[in-house]
Design goal:
This protein has 452 residues and is of the alpha/beta class. Helices cover 38% and strands 14% of the residues. Strands 3-2-1-4-5-6 form a 6-stranded parallel beta sheet, sandwiched between helices. Strands 11-10-9-12-13-14 form a 6-stranded parallel beta sheet. Strands 7-8 form a two-stranded parallel ribbon. Strand 10, helix 13 and strand 11 form a beta-alpha-beta unit. Helix 4 packs parallel to helix 5, helix 7 crosses helix 9 and helix 7 packs across helix 10. The longest helix has 31 residues. It is globular. About 5% of the residues have low confidence.
Length: 452
């Protein structure tokens, strides 16, 4: 087993993995963001994926007297003596939904500059089959001057982090592993098996492991697209989609998918990676891309259905004020990457409405930076549980200021976009006018006027 592991990228994937390995190994967590490193070295993870207690338990200032632990750094010199490098950087798509491999290339360049004979580089970033060996390896060779599978070796073990899930943490999710040679594959598998309590699955090749990850999310995308299309059909028939799914779900082999907005860093992105690769080899993937179009259309559908429900109540649309509950891409999580709520907000604003976004989980600074939206992290009278906003943050100060105002603003409509636990028992009607509409995207509110 290696004496020292370097994890490149300390986001939603990298930090939980680095923390886990640090319970048994010397781990250097590297990130190009100085502010992220400062935050982690203070013992706090703003993503809330690793608790302060768990993080502080493994943090070390150096390895002079430590056989294991986590050193967080933005200095590339701190990773030059590692034996294993694990790359966990994002793999987004650009504005045209084409795979953006720039973060992966940049991370590979960083690793290549410190790579030594005998080292292993493992990629966890979600990619299409072939990226590790066709895109990353040439970068490693260029900047290291070493030869692949002679001087250094590679592995691929797709990330399986579920943001916001406190039950299925990284060590409790089976890990797929692979290596560029049979011997490397065994080493990679043994390394992960030493910390993953539920075990590993050794794939026969890196390309198989890459493909296994990308189809996990493509499969979910396809299934959600099916029920989203059903929701549109049943809406025209004036039938409750949830009632239909409840009835169909009485059969033992019916798959329990629900309609909704498909965002985040995986399901809404990964299918494009597979479709792009398919097109490169001469196959146009109609089913995958059709599912993507259906799911990407749902933000506009939610907005139009909200407007429809308001018109039925004789509510003036132009100038109406709407309260949007939630902006993160999923419940009980602060992750706002590729959230489709912003598209709902934009669509509502296109109708001439004024939208106020309220989310006690999201970082308002991040939301404004990424999407140009100002959000509330608190509302007067909002008492449904403690806010997860970090102590001392701008978000907390903003929330406290809003609460102290004590003025309950009345809205013409509310849209529940994210089912944060804080919203489930919240007295929402106290913030609404008498004829106001509640539109429930998630199907969890008992007094909603309309649902997806």
């Amino acid at each position: 087993m290696p004496k020292k592991i370097a994890v490149i990228g300390l986001g939603y994937v990298g930090l939980p993995l680095a923390r886990l390995f640090a319970t048994q190994y010397q781990v250097v967590g590297f990130d190009i963001s100085q502010s992220r490193i400062q935050e982690l070295n203070s013992g706090t993870d703003k993503t809330l994926e690793v608790s302060d207690d768990l993080l502080q338990a493994v943090l070390v200032p150096d390895f002079h007297d430590a056989e294991k632990g986590l050193l967080c750094t933005a200095d590339v010199r701190d990773i030059q003596d590692a034996a294993v490098y694990i790359v966990t950087v994002p793999t987004p798509v650009d504005k045209n939904n084409r795979p953006d491999l720039r973060p992966l290339h940049s991370a590979s360049e960083t690793v290549g500059r410190v790579l030594k004979k005998g080292d292993i580089v493992i990629y966890e970033s979600t990619v299409y089959p072939g990226v590790t060996e066709e895109e990353c390896v040439p970068v490693l060779e260029k900047y290291s001057g070493l030869k692949f599978n002679v001087d250094f070796f590679c592995g691929y073990s797709p990330e399986r982090i579920n943001p916001g899930d406190r039950e299925k943490t990284v060590e409790k999710i089976m890990k797929v592993t692979s290596g560029s040679t049979p011997e490397t594959a065994q080493e990679v598998d043994a390394l992960y098996r030493s910390v993953i309590t539920v075990g590993t699955h050794l794939a026969p090749s890196i390309k198989v492991a890459e493909a296994s990850k990308v189809i996990e999310n493509a499969q979910r995308d396809l299934n959600i697209a099916f029920v989203n299309e059903l929701a549109k059909i049943f809406n025209l028939m004036d039938i409750s989609t949830q009632d239909v799914l409840d009835a169909a779900g009485t059969k033992w082999n019916f798959l329990p998918f629900k309609p909704g907005l498909v965002g985040g860093h995986c399901i809404g992105v990964d299918p494009f990676y597979l479709a792009q690769k398919a097109q490169e080899i001469g196959y146009y993937s109609e089913l995958i891309l059709t599912a993507r179009r259906v799911n990407d259309s749902m933000a506009g559908f939610v907005a139009s259905q909200t407007v429809k429900a308001m018109i039925k109540r004789n509510i003036q649309i132009n100038g109406a004020e709407v309260l949007m509950l939630g902006i993160t891409f999923k419940e009980n999580c602060g992750d706002v990457r590729n959230t489709k709520i912003v598209e709902v907000v934009a669509a509502l604003e296109d109708y001439g409405m004024k939208v106020t976004v309220f989310d006690p989980w999201a970082d308002p600074v991040e939301v404004e930076h990424e999407y140009g939206l100002k959000i509330l992290t608190g509302l007067p009278g909002f008492t449904a549980g403690a806010s997860p906003v970090l102590p001392g943050s701008a978000g907390q100060a903003s929330a406290e200021g809003q609460l102290q105002e004590g003025i309950i603003r009345k809205y013409d409509a509310a849209v529940l976009g994210v089912a944060h636990r804080e919203f489930l028992h919240y007295d929402l009607r106290s913030h609404l006018k008498d004829r106001a509409v509640i539109y429930d995207v998630k199907g969890v509110l008992h007094d909603a006027d309309a649902r997806l």
